[in-house]
Amino acid sequence: MVEGAKMSESKDVILGRIRGALKKEVSDKADDLLALPDILRSYEQQSSHSDEEKLHLFAERVSEYRAVTEIIAEEDTGERIRTICSESGVKSLVVPGGIDEKWVSTLDDGVRLLRDEPEPLTKEELNNSDAVLTGAFLGVAQTGTIILNAGTGQGRRVLTLLPDFHICVIRQEQIVGIIPQAIKKLDSTVIETGRPVTMISGPSATSDIELNRVEGVHGPRRLHVLVIKQKS
Amino acid sequence: MNKTTAHKPVPFEQSAGRYLADTQLRRNIGHAAQTIRAKRANAVNELSDWEDLREAGRLIKERVMNNLDSYLLQLEESVIKAGGHVHWATDGEDANRIITGLVKRKGVTEVVKVKSITTDEIKLNDALEKEGIHALETDLAELIVQLAGDEPSHILVPAIHKNRSEIRDLFKEKLNIEHLSDKPADLAEAARLYLRKNFLKATVGISGANFAVAETGTVVVVESEGNGRMCTTLPDTLITVMGIEKIIPKWQDFEVFMQLLPRSSTAERMNPYNNFWTGISDGDGPQEFHLILLDNGRTKVLADETGRQTLFCIRCSACLNVCPVYERTGGHAYHSVYPGPIGAILTPQLRGLQDQSAASLPYASSLCGACYEVCPVKINIPEVLVHLRGKVVEYKKEHGGIGHKTDTIHLGMKFMARTFQTRNRYERLQRLGKIGQKLFVKDGAISRLPGELAKWTSIRDVKPIPKQTFREWWRERK
Lengths: 232, 478
Description:
- The complex is a heterodimer.
- Chain A is built from eight helices and twelve strands.
- By secondary structure, chain A is an alpha/beta fold.
- Chain A starts with a helix and ends with a strand.
- By secondary structure, chain B is α/β, with parallel strands linked by helices.
- Among the domains of chain B are: 65-298, Rossmann fold, CATH 3.40.50; 405-477, no CATH class.
- Chain B has helices spanning 12-20, 23-45, 50-66, 68-81, 92-105, 117-121, 124-130, 140-148, 164-174, 184-201, 227-233, 254-265, 298-303, 318-322, 324-329, 340-351, 356-360, 370-374, 381-399, 401-405, 408-419, 423-436, 454-457, 470-477; strands at 85-89, 110-113, 134-137, 204-207, 211-213, 218-223, 237-243, 247-248, 273-278, 288-294, 441-442, 445-446.
- At the A-B interface, helix 1, helix 2, helix 6, helix 7 and helix 8 of A face helix 2, helix 3, helix 4, strand 1 and helix 5 of B.
- Strand 9 of chain A pairs antiparallel with strand 9 (273-278) of chain B.
């Protein structure tokens, strides 16, 4: 009770200080904010890139963060994932619920699939796994960014965090040109579902030591992005 | 933790001299500032609409400050609706009490922390330590600073004053590693191994916030290493501390800030990770979320109509990297968690002018304006610096007493003001000066004056009065 009283007291103190600072009467907030005119937004909100340009720009910019990027045909996806796992010695692969089964149907016998659904995997299981395979919600060409929104085929945030190697599959149709377009497409995720959003640009990195960029501190040290080319 | 390099705050002109004498430090900082400056220019030049983004950023922040009470209430409502808890803290002590209470209720003695300058500002780690709770810093640079018992020296890269071999020696000693090279990759690997086990067992995480959206209650932590992801995802309870000025009105505003911040800060098109969360999500991440709204002097800044723009700051640190003063003294000389040009205007406003160290900071500038040019939200730092210098003088007049009235600088300024009032006095002084300066001019400048006048030349050269002044030349011409 004391805690609660102190809290609302602090709230009143702060609001009072703000109103004093702004020389403003107590007012009804909803009307106040709704009455404000729109902010002038003269910056670019649409990109001028063609689909083909966006695809190549995305691949190039993701690679510049020292991630591996490949543009592939839909029918080759399973085979590419099989090869990547076998070349990197992946023995256990984490997959979220709703993953496209064709992507994991041709894995070598030695690779154990760790499914996060129906029973969620533990932190320890995730930490001891070799890699994680997910889809994505969006890609941003201009910045080489992958955006996850915890939707189908992407799973909980921790899935793409603890394994040391993230294999991410994204479709060409999911790539937008610039950041404002991505923010718009995230509207419903954030405003309606309230699900978390993670933006990933390359593997984890630090420049804390003499500003030398080092890939891989706490997040996955390797990121491999497969872009499925749109059928024309 | 013993603060081996924590120094008693002294006025900037005194501490600057000390740090300037440290050549290793000057090399480390100089190298860093130059590197990141060039990188930032490239990242910014890539965008043809950069000026439009800056303008939008400034307008959004200005709107937030002018309606801060309404936006805070809207944010509180949104966070609660999304399943979170909101706490209000009038000052650092208030915030520390709330956070310590929350952690103690969880019955833990260790928490993991994402780098947050706001928690440095309120000395949260010390407050937790007093209650027997260890706050483990997980950002590589913050970990280095914490292990060394040191203080951060830069907003973005707090351990920039240390070079690789200093860090290697520190890790060997503090993390008990026998063999370790000084390659940055090996040092990062050592930190990864040390921290991973702590992340896995952590039940409480503490973070700052880069932005919080009033409309949705969404909070974001912008980062590179993945420690931000760890701290905001793995623990059961997440406590986030944010200054009340960090609000943005709408989700849409990220169109602007997700472009302005990365390019100004790490000078990348985008930093590796941005973590957005809205309250709690079933089965994904912490199931208990507390947001602490901190004032701690910010409403005082808000009350000053010229100083108000200081609160637009998004902590990118671009102004540090272009500042000729910061580049030479480094961050420690400012005796504040907010160094550089932004610190020179923020610190005195937060702490008040009775703090002599803080009151000296508006003078830690040549007013060259480079900081204003790079600021992504167009804070006119030189304008605020000059405004604060005026306030410092006013404050001294009011509170300085006899000490101020007899102070040579004060007397000198009064004398100069009288001299500049009439042409006769001005020209007479010029003539006297021409004779008087003869003994002191060396290589075209006066670097050392005698007696009380030495105060003026101790930190600057004076240009001598020329053989022929402009006025003399003008008269002769006619």
